[in-house]
Write a structure and sequence with these properties.
Length: 110
């Protein structure tokens, strides 16, 4: 089993819990590249506003092409809540996959 497959397998339970398909999970993970292997960069801090602004700018705006700032802010807050605001291990792959689903952009990762 490759290291990539091992990392994907570690996300399987969370992916099922949030209704994320295997193809979406794999596509988002590939898009994140080597950051999924680093303990720090593989997670999203829901309490760090600078981190959430980077998610908004680099993923939602640049990658998904979303331009509505209020919608992006609302979606990020909903994902933080859905994953649990006290959950310190919000996996970036899962976080981004949920956002892609919220905006109907799953096909970008197929």
């Amino acid at each position: 089993m490759s290291k990539f497959d091992e990392v994907l397998a570690s996300y399987a339970d969370d992916a099922k819990k949030h209704g994320i398909s295997d193809s979406l999970l794999k596509g988002v993970a590939k898009g994140l590249g080597p950051s999924i292997y680093n303990a720090d960069s593989s997670k999203v801090s829901g309490s760090d506003q600078a981190e959430l602004d980077r998610v908004k700018a680099n993923f939602l705006s640049k990658k998904l092409g979303i331009t509505d700032d209020a919608a992006m802010t609302k979606a990020i807050a909903e994902v933080v809540e859905e994953m649990g605001s006290s959950n310190r291990n919000k996996q970036r792959v899962i976080f981004y996959a949920i956002l892609a689903k919220k905006f109907g952009k799953e096909s970008m990762f197929a």
